[in-house]
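An instance noted here:
***
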Amino acid sequence: MTYLIFLAIFSLLGVVTFVPAFTRIVERYPTGINFFLTLLATLIGVLLAIVISDYEAKQNEKQDVIKLLTSAISSVEQCHQYSVQIVEYYQSLPPNEYDKKLFFQQNTPPYPAYLDIFLAQNMVSTNLSGTTLNDLNEYLINIKRTQNYNAILYIDMLNQIKQLLGLEITYQQGKIDRIELEARADVLKEQLQLKVNAVLTDSQH
């Protein structure tokens, strides 16, 4: 933004020399004015190069963040699929053959450890939206709590994380703005809260 302001100022200074009111000054000091215009043209060229370079760097960084987000989604999907298989296996066992709590302690659904590495990267913390950054940290705290407590709820949370990361990719690609991102993320949290409430209700009966 600063470079753009200087660019606008220098461009205006150059335009001023063509205003009729300054014609006499231009005619009286042609050498000095030509030097001034040459200097302005050089400065404008340098600033344009800096602006373009900064823009390209930001675009490249954004693409790198999208790649990291895609890898994070892949990690979550793998954990989600394996967790579903564990639950399906448990449900296929004869009734009362295994204590449910003991079974899932011995067959813990996998945790997407890549997400911890993902969040620790400076590029991610700098470029990720505040909404996704805050919600993702909250989700990770919750899945660590439910990993050995409720496998079904754990699977639901993994699914919510996957959807949140997908939303962030859409935001990074410029397909939705920050307001829409926040609105969709809030919907995800509300959906998860309904599932949590349902689990709590079932546990009381």
